Amino acid sequence: MVVKLPVWTLRPSRWALALLLAVALSGCLAPERSDAELQQALAAHADVAADIAADTSQGSDTALELDISDVAEADVPAVDAADAQDDAGTDVAPDAAGEVQDGAATDAGPDSQPDTSGPDTAADTTPDVGKDTAADAIVDVAPDVGQDAAPEVVADIAPDTATPPLCQPGFVAIDVDGQLVCAADVPLWGVKPLKQQGAFTANGDGTVSDAKALLMWQASGAANTYSHAEAEAFCQAATTGGHSDWRLPTVGEWLSIVDYSQLYPSLTAEFTIADAKGFWAANANVGQSSTHWFVWLNYGYTDTDAPTAKEHALCVRCTTAKCANPAALNAGAARFSLQAGGATATDALTGLTWQVDASVNGTATWDAAAGVCQALTVAGGGWRVPNIAELLTIVDRGKSSPAIDSAVFPGTKSDWYWTATSWGGSENSEAWFVQFGSGDSNHYPKTNKHRLRCVK
Q1: Close Cβ partners of 73 (under 8 Å, ≥ 6 residues apart)
Q2: Among the CATH numbers 3.40.50, 3.10.100, 2.20.28, 3.10.20, which is that of 171-326?
Q3: Residue 360 CB: number of other CB atoms within 10 A?
Q4: 213, 189, 206: which is closest to 350 by C-alpha?
Q5: Tens-place pLDDT, residues 217-267
């Protein structure tokens, strides 16, 4: 039972009278109690008095709510059932039901409706509808529907529905020595040759330098295998060559050192790999968020695996800011310039010009693919099938189905596309392809029919 009394009728001198009225009513409504039960009930009345004091001092409730059942039960604290609007100050206890709107100050307890005016000081039980104006001080129980204006001080139990991008497209966000690094997954270094002899310098301290890509690598891969998280920790703890800023490489960085003329491993002699199998990359697979990329160094193909799987680790670091700087790349279509009435796209990073509409090529065996490109007359002809290193430069691992910039290459099928590179382990009976559904690479018999995109 609830008795409502106008607040203006309750002056501080009359609080005791109101409390006695509540006690009297509870005695009428509740069954006969023992002395111990009555003492317990009197202790509970302090909650009522505190709530009265808080509400009347703020002056924002339209009516004082006395919940007689609180007094009778003696084990339920007195709280506001539902305020018409927020108190100007802090509530003595959190509201049991949602407040219609936020007030000038945050509540001591959690809201059942989202805050609209400032950061949360207690966990939200439902997600914020819009952006937080400042970082949440503690964990959200439910994710924010919109992007936060600032990151949470403590991680959300559930992630925000919309997460602001940390890096521009073509870069991967990596924690390096406590600092965020946007590492390049696009070929800032241009197209590497299929044969990499002479491209690297052994420094004599367990490191190998690549002057063109501005990267330094560990010379020896770890003999042990790790989960993806363990591999990240392995690199973060590494001090090879006296450096502490080691990290996992992106897929793009891995591909910058693969030597497609070498097998077991597909690296040059400057690197010592005890077990040339799977090595983790930093990238998560956007097409299947539960997996991460790795490179199989037996012969250099790329694939994905569950983060709990065990793979090897080889770490990399940047030697200048350029190789980990999102400003180094104009994102999206700005990397490519469309020409010949939109029929061709020239890549500013590699200097290669690509056929935009590859659907006109149909499918062909590997032997027939070269003739298809040679017969292409668009933009003056001179077309050919790209090699494996070239075709991998237009893969966008930030996208899937297809894993390419569809604004530049609309209509790309999530399918296999031939390269001009034979696979050395099959006595030239197989050749490399790129799968543009996911962006991975492997080899198939040359007698298979696959799609192709021409380059010049």
Answers
A1: none
A2: 3.10.100
A3: 10
A4: 189
A5: 999 987 899 999 999 999 999 999 999 999 999 999 999 999 998 888 899
Contact 142, 126 (CB under 8 A): yes
- Do residues 52 and 38 lie in contact, with contact meaning Cβ atoms separated by under 8 Å? no
Scan for tokens 């700087």, then name that residue. Answer: 325
* Residue 402 token pair: 């297809």
Q: Where are the beta strands (DSSP E) in 121-212?
A: 171-176, 179-184, 201-202, 207-210
What is the value of pTM for the model shown?
0.64
**Listed residue (112, 144, 113, 139) closest to 127, CA to CA:** 144
Which pLDDT tens digit goes with each residue over 162-177? 545 567 778 888 877 7
- What is the side-by-side order of every strand in the sheet holding 316-318? 201-202, 207-210, 215-218, 316-318
Measuring CA to CA, which residue among 209, 254, 269, 218 is closest to residue 239? 218
Please check whether residue 453 is in contact with residue 417, taking contact to mean a CB–CB distance below 8 angstroms: yes
Residue 156 CA: distances (Å) to CA of 138, 141, 257, 307, 409: 8, 7, 38, 21, 37
Q: Where are the domains of the chain?
A: 1-109, 115-163, 171-326, 330-445
Count the Cβ atoms, other than its own, within 10 Å of residue 135. Answer: 14
Question: Is residue 353 within 8 Å of 440, Cβ to Cβ?
Answer: no
For residues 227 and 248, is the Cβ–Cβ distance under 8 A?
no
> Residues 182, 173: contact at Cβ < 8 Å?
yes
Whether 115 contacts 99, CB under 8 Å: no
Instruction: Say how many C-beta atoms besides its own lie within 10 A of residue 224's C-beta.
Output: 13
CA-closest candidate to residue 66, choices 54, 77, 52, 82: 52
* Other CB atoms within 10 Å distance of the CB of residue 326: 18
DSSP string of 96-137?
A: SS--SS--SS--SS--SS--SSS--SS--SS--SS--SS--S
Maximum separation of any 2 CA atoms in the chain, in Å: 103
The separation between the first and the last C-alpha atoms of the chain, rounded to the nearest angstrom, is 84
